[in-house]
Protein 1
Amino acid sequence: MNPDSFRLRAARPDDIDAFVRIAGASATGITTLPEDRAQLADRLNRSTQAGASSDEPSGEEIHLFVVEHDGRIVGTSGIAASAGFADRFYSFRNEMVVQSSPVLAASNRIHTLHLCHDLTGHTLLTSFYIDPEYEATLAPQLLSRARLLFIAEFAERFSDRIASESPGLADDNGRCPFWDAVGRRFFAMDYPQVERLAGGRHKRFIAELMPQAPIYVPLLPNEAQWAIGQLHPVAELPFSILEDEGFDSETYVDIFDGGPTVDARVAMLKSVKASRAAQVVAAASAAPGNGPSSWHIVANTRRDHFAAVLRHAERGTTDLALGDATCQALAVEPGDRLRVVALEGSAA
Amino acid sequence: MNPVIWRVRDADSADLATISHWLRREALPATAPGEAVLVAARADDPAAHAQVTLRLVPRIGLVLPRVSFHVGCTVHAAPELALFHRQRTLQLGHDHTGCAELADIARAPRLDDRSATDALLALAHAALDRRVARSGDFGTDLVAELPGLRDADGSAPFWQGLGRHFYAGDIAAAAAEHGPGWRSHVAALLPRQTVSTAFLPEATQAAIGAVHPGARWQWAALTEIGLRDSHHVNVEDGGPVLEMPLPAPESAPSAG
């Protein structure tokens, strides 16, 4: 598949059917998309409003994106402006406690999990999904990284810190070893039931019912210990992109399934640091470049109609000659501002 | 059958040798002001052989910290989720620092439970009288630890489910080397933060505050003098720590 056949754009309310399909296709806990048409429609409306609004951001904004291939939606991604908006965002923080008894000539190093609100207010990456047949293409790169360009472009509307939850280990029946060893001891509920509750307003209730004291990991069954910070296999691709961007995966885990919650400073992310402003020039007036070229994410700088594509471009250039089709895909014309970043490892 | 009359006296060096045998460790003579090792012998035994013993300690934990787990409770309630969940918790602490203690309680192996209880009762009353005579040396509360549950092989389910994860060493060897104070040393390795008992195996939870069946004779005598469950347990086997306030000296009955 030719990378230049993919187009990322802001999601619209009429994308609802694609979102319903994708929410239904993902296993328990895999995306943050609810399996409820009305809720999805609400999110699409909120996303459109957030893109168009000229109001000062409140932190409640969400932004949803889709990637299209030949006009068909094959993936989604999203941003929540402020994790836990107007409430607390709960995580477990990994900590090590070292204790010693000189008289017994013994010491230990104990892994503990601390319920915390550290990530409250961080911008959150959400809703990643790519159809399986597109996993090996550059579409997931466009889907995940273009939203970082969006954040970089509209930095004043987001936190300078960013996080993303990834699903932890659970089987096809929704059995989750971490939940069974931790949360289930405090609520006699299966993980899928809790997932449904946690998607709504009950997340805070559930978190507040967890033990407030640190959890001593050695007291958990081995299967649950092993699940801490482990990814669900379906999340390996989006997780690997975030790791490559420079997200840290060592500090936080999800309070329900133990999956890793990665975090970073926005300014330190690879695509943010390497992105640069550029402008559209007419294809006919562009001087042919002689430098090395590679695939780039080329994004417009319109919050209301954000769009990004993959194009081959000379590294470091600030003038991008775009054909009519590309200008149309990005809704730009010569002279318009762009934000671009090279995809590393994609040199032609 | 006439009830046995018990005579209480201070242990002599021969008694200490016998007590060491019962405790399976060396019994040291009393040294601190007010401290006493007492033995009870049958009044009709011409040789006055010790049958039951206890050590009266005026204040504990002032040299080597005395640790125990406080057994607490937290309630997780959410009416919105129709949830009401009561959880027991364990919190390591030194809550009995400065208390007086009835320690090293032991008996002759062949003595029956009923007689042992009666003898211990006589010893406990004698100990309380000693305290009245020297009240300034004693703490204001009295405690006594009871042995907790053990498997046939001597291992404690409480330790297996909790302490073992924090100290992997041989606890029998640690106890042999450091005496009962080994628990103070191992406490440096135990969890400092509250532990929800929901994370512990069932056998460990069942051992919290449970008295070893072989120590019920002690429980009978100690509760008879007024000691009650203090919601604290021993860090090794989860056996209960009993506690009672000691009456103020001026209101205490005369030692006669």
Note: Chain A touches chain B at residues 97, 99-101, 103-104, 106-108, 110, 112, 181, 185-187, 197, 202, 205-206, 208-209, 211, 213-216, 218-220 (CB under 8 Å).
Protein 2
Amino acid sequence: MAKAPALPVGFELPLEPRIPRIGSVDQVGLEERSATLAKRSIKREAKVWALDLAVRMMDLTTLEGSDTPGKVAALASKGIRPDPADASVPSVAAICVYPNLVATAAERVRGTSVKVASVATAFPSGQTPLALKVAEVHEAIELGADEIDMVIDRGAFLAGRYAKVYDEVVRVKEACGDVHLKVILETGELGTYDNVRRASLLAMAAGADFIKTSTGKLPSAATLPVTLVMLEAIRDVYEETGRMVGMKPAGGIRTAKQAVQYLVQLHETLGPEWLTPDLYRLGASSLLNDVLMQLRKEKTGRYQSPDYFTVD
Amino acid sequence: MTELEKKRSAAPVPSEWTYAPAPEARDIVSLEERYGLFVGGEFVEPRSGEYFPTIDPSNEEPLAEVAQAGPEDVSAAVASAREAFENGWSGLAPAERAKYLFRIARILQERSREFAVLESLNGGKPIRESRDVDLPLAAAHFFYYAGWADKLEYAFPNRRPRPLGVAGQIIPWNFPLLMLAWKIAPALAAGNTVVLKPAETTPLSALLFCDVLRQAELPHGVVNLVTGDGRTGAELVKHEGVDKIAFTGSTEVGKAIQRELAGTGRRLTLELGGKAANIVFDDAPLDQAIEGIVNGIYFNQGHVCCAGSRLFVQESIYEPVVSKLKRRLQTLRVGDPLDKNTDVGAINSKQQLTKIEELVAAGEAEGAEIYQPPCRLPERGYWFAPTVFTNVAQSYRIAQEEIFGPVLSVLTFRTPDEAVEKANNTPYGLSAGVWTDKGSRILAMASRLRAGVIWANTFNRFDPSSPFGGYKESGFGREGGLHGLEPYLDFDGKADSFGG
């Protein structure tokens, strides 16, 4: 079991000023800022641009005990061509499923730009031995996963055993190799924005390609302020190291309006460089149809009945 | 799939996300061509016969003509206020006074969009701020003081509070309607009548407010409005029929008013300039501190007497703070005040723009390093890009004089003692900000900073229940809260504690 390394003799404080000192987060100021950004008024061509991007950034997700190959295949087809009536609507970024359904999804998306993301490491709780987590990652990749969404061990984090959390992320990243690793912090269980910031920096230091808010299995999933804390941590890492880490809010994003708010916050916090599916994903199961409906409205000037959009 | 992909490449996605214009509709506001003076419950032609144009500072388009009140006009307004005070208003049951104030507050809420648009049109401030700050606060002020109107005996037990009579009130152009609310609400709640002079450049929301008074059926003469330039204000100040002067504006004019009133026995409260220190310690929540710094100085284009115009950064975090600040400045959206996405609007007047330009030039000449984010300013109208000066010494003019524009001076300090010493080293004392994660340090700093308002881990937040006012050359008297009632009341026939 990993232990926090004792400080070596001659341990040095950083000699240069460093931005990603852990630092703190002020809840009131943070929530004010994200509420202000949420009031941006995005209209017409700017809205179409954002909605199109939202589709391209979407990790279309199904993570249910009742998932079957049939359900996943249908979802993958929807992800490849979200709006059969409008070929200009792009494919989503990825289909996100449990390891057992990776093969089905991979089969269906083969030859397209759509990736397969698999949750792993005893999703959603993360409360199993490390060896099993690593093995699960290996298997998911063998089954065809292009991306791994792991969960951190919140029990260890909240107990102050940061080194354990860190080591697990390092080991999982090793197991991933070139496969993209998204680290889920499950912010709803971390309790404070300070903890979210700490966990974000820890995950990035351990090698996360993306940091992700939530499993979607809790009532409190992604929120704008929690996403803002994580974006600011990403920005600090970028400022110091030049490394661009991706962000994925997941859970609770159900409407096109919310999706645009998330993108505005991204745009004004990390800048236009991050407005790409390579660096930002929206994890969602029911968002897509609302986005499609809004896109069609912008193009035709009319809202269509939900009957015109396929359920999956 | 190949067909789909071809279509995608045929219509390349633009790489830049440009927000489409999102202007608030201005047709909700209908303006008269010409406005008279509001005296005795109706608009009257000025006896002076003079009018002057008032403009939209974002494009210099004229909006309407307003009257230049002369000495006779001021006298008529004061007489009307006196008449209303003697014959009705001061004898009205306090709960009845409260009813009128509640009505005014509700009407302001109902018509808030109209007022917000007008405030942005005439003053140049972004609609986001007039909509989310000016209007809600103005209504809140009337609600708050309406509540006190029938509870004065409880607010000041055993002191027999009584109204003073006629209050002459002179307000600035930075928050036209909000300052009107700060002045009128406590005066009326305490049982006084009012002659109010709005600022020369921003009279329109006050003139529209007269329509609210009519809607609320406020007895005639309780509130009178005289428009004009500084001459009108001077007439009001020296008028012997006025029992109390409340002034918000520059320290220079405030001093002149105080000289004028010395020895007359007429009451005075002054809310004047400021050069607030915003102090950031190295344990502060940095990203939120950056927001606070930005809100402290670029809110309302820096036309804020309590603006955090001197930023004191602990030297150990100077570099990250400055680099984060510069980065944040690049995302400020400067432009059309009526666009809902605008963060920084137009400078209020040509005169103010000239003053800002003069001081900024002085800062550069003195050796400070200037930073302005790349932004395209409109060609017409009065505009100034958000500006940060680094490498500023305490002795530079930009660190001493009030600029009243979107210009921040960054200085450094090493220890809390040094921060206090430098922050207090100014003739002003209106407000200050402290940013630290340490609660005990907030309290220690707050007790040592010589400023009337101190914000902790935030800046430029206002509430009607919180008294606002200055130390030293930032004035005396308080507005807001219980303290805000005192200057409008007589106690046991004796003068109150401020400026008697």
Note: Chain B has two domains: 34-272+474-491, 277-463.
Protein 3
Amino acid sequence: MAIAKKAVVWGLFAAGGTLTAFVFPALIGLYLLIASGNVPDGLQFDQIHAFAASWLGKACLFIVLFLSVWHAAHRLRVVAHDFGIRKDALVAKAVYTFAAIGTLLTAFYLLGI
Amino acid sequence: MSRNPYVRPISTTTWYMRNGRYKVYMLRELTSFLVVFYSLLTIFALSALADSADRWNGFIASQQGKGMMVFHALALLYFLFFQTFPWFKLAPKAMPVQLGEKRLPDSYIIIGHYVAWIAVSICIFWLAGAF
């Protein structure tokens, strides 16, 4: 059981790491464009809403956010250890709960669009 | 086992300051906070999008300004140099490609990642209507 859990967590960490490495620079770039006042047309309400309303759009957004939060959760667990917090069971519970809530909220909001 | 094993005194909170490689490791680890920040920001954006056009436009307006520009620009550079590029660099070690007796050269795998990354980024900007 312990090995099976480890494999799942590690798999999500690796998939999420690859995904964030590929996608996050462009995502941060979009936030940079928004911040500069040059909001791209695709981010106007009607267009982004239509994208998130389509099943393909929902699937893309869900996969990106799902893998990102689980990747982040696993990384935060290691960061906590690296900074000297040695209560791993408690930390693990906290970060994976955070990831589960993030996943549920993402699904909830996407299904509401 | 000796009854009085010698335990080297190593700080559990500042151990990485002793060595340049450890410092770089910790700088890489810190990109996880950026993943958390942008994931939460995007989930918050989804909540606005699911709510109403007014809340979406309010969200977009709230994200504008010089301070946000500087923050995102620094975050982008930090993320590239401490997450994206190191991740591509270790890809051939994490997933070596065997071709019969030989291994695909590491440089091919790394260049492949960069090409795919540029393609993915162009796709995202195109989808967002940035050009």
Note: DSSP finds five helices and two strands in chain B.
Protein 4
Amino acid sequence: MKTMSTHAIDPDLFWRTDDGRTAAERAADYGIDLSLIEENLRLTPEQRIDRNQAALDLVKALQAARN
Amino acid sequence: MENLKDLVVQLGRNDCRFVLVGGFCVASWGSSLLTRDVDVVCDMSPENLCRAWQALEEFHPVHRMTPGRLPFTREQAEAGTLNNLYLSTDLGQLDLLGEIKGIGSFEECRKASEPIRIGGTEIRLLTLDALILAKRAMGRPKDLHAVLELEVIRERRSRG
């Protein structure tokens, strides 16, 4: 079962890189969905920007529909 | 009409000297974080701000932080007194900054940048290492979230 991170915004969580853990482990511990990053890394920068725009457009359409 | 890519391409096509920083740059590197505006560190000389004005003019740029949202004019660009510009345009919100924490001025950002092609135009964006430095220096919760994602991206890239 996927659970949300229970970490507060603890600076140690972000700044420490000497804890023997990988960046992926630290991010996953915070609740970041690594599969979204993996998917983005298969795209070109321009494709990533286009996806950002598509997501923004969807958010705006949903907000407009609610009003 | 809002389109952040078109906004960036418009600046590039008008030979405006800038480096992408902020959320748009984070998204370009592969983060899953959504961004609603474009932040650039810009050569704030009158000549370059005139290029920015020329690029934006048809998209009705206004100072979004000022009462009455006054227009950004060519006269203001020529005056040479602007340090930062917080604009709203028909294509979206655009911040033109003279410097950013962690890296510095436009020239320093340019040294810490690399080119990409967007919409057939070459655009410079902060390197991944420089972006992580800048985001760490900013230190807000949203920046720290971005750092976590960017460090994953750096780890993946270093593995090939």
Note: Helices of chain A lie at 11-15, 23-30, 34-41, 45-66.
